[in-house]
Fold Branched-chain amino acid ABC transporter permease.
Amino acid sequence: MDQLQALLTDVLREGIGAKTAAIAIVIIGLNVHFGYTGLLNMGQAGFMLLGGYGFAISVAHDIPFVVAILIGFALATVFAMIIGFSALTLRGDYLAIVTIAAAEVIKILGNSERFKSLTGGSLGFPSKKYDPAFLNLSFFPHYKTWQILSFNYADVSTSAGFRIFGWLVVLALAVGLVLAGMKLASGTRKILVMVGLGVVLLLAALFMFPLTELSTGDSKVGDHVASSTGWWVVFVGWVLAAICTGIVYLLTRSPWGRMLKGIREDEDAIRSLGKNVFAVKLQALIIGGCFGALGGMVYALSLGAIKADDQARPMTFLCYTALLIGGAATLLGPIIGPVLYFFGQWTIEGIVRFYVPDSFLSDQQAEPTAYVVMGTVLMLLVIFRPQGIFGDKRELRFHV
């Protein structure tokens, strides 16, 4: 029982952690590209790398924090314009080939020995060079741990029956959230219901699986201050994800946003109305790329180092998987999709490590097994519910 409690607590920690928030921000940008505009961008990891490197290297060279963020955005904008002017006239698979090749160029440059003094090469750019500037902005207490909900199940009962009942309540709320996303018609009511259920589900989960972390993310060992992931970066990550979601909400309900959807459905029809389709697609590419760069910055803050190999092709595929799970061209799909993805991945890995005999699957095979299962889930989703869990089939289908 205690082992299962520990497993589910770790799953919750990863599911709402800073890494998940960073991926959600990246997927919001990808949703602007693929979901709303119909651009098959397979190079979103390149925007992440440029944002992360631009921000981290700038901060390490004592450039002001806000300016460092703007440098990350500027690099993403230049990258988007290079791709846009050279490849936005292409469609479908051809655009995907160009964007994935462009992202590979960024990864190769990041790993190159020629730029090792700047990027750290294959060893990565260590977080100790840029973390302190971020941690100093924290208004959370330093060098202290913090539990989000001080009142939890242990204050009521630690019996197995009460814990199982609590787990079932959390599961029921999760199922209710999924059903609400699937059954309710798109609109403000659906968004409000899902947000409300999501908040209740989060509180219930934190009650049953209390999380204790460093409040700011710094710890002191003797006279040395070491940085690590804490509630501060988690808080910043999800606040930024909420802000980005709000920006997309406003954009997609503007005339410009409706033009994006028109381009996705039939760009020739939009062009016949006298609209500059290329300019709008380039704007969407830049905006989505800047979201990707911002996600790369948060991702860098959640890790011990920025490594180009951590944000290569598999990262883009992970983002597409999570987007399709949540639902492309939806407002909350990019937020809930990565949460569900990481919940599923870490649950499968934990089950393999703790409950499957080593003679059948070893601990080293836990992660590959999780990828196989999640890949199978994606295939079934594309076949039986191509609009994703929270998508509307009248809005967008992932054609296979």
Notes: DSSP finds 15 helices and six strands in the chain. The radius of gyration is 21 Å. The first helix runs from residue 2 to 15. The first strand starts at residue 125 and ends at 126.
